[in-house]
Amino acid sequence: MSSSIVEQSTPLRDSVLWRLQSLFYDKESVKAWSDAVVPNFVTSNAFIATCYARLILAYIREWHSR
Question: What pTM value is reported for the model?
Fold first, then answer.
């Protein structure tokens, strides 16, 4: 298996990937979710949202206790 380097170390916000993704979402808009192009399970799952909320609160509590 061979691999190719698309670009050297670049911050994500300045990368080709970021620009391509931005163009995709500009073109597709919310249709990307309604047509199931984007897996919406992760972005609309109450269990995962609760896990993220707990993680964020734990981080804030730990940071505040310092």
Answer: 0.48
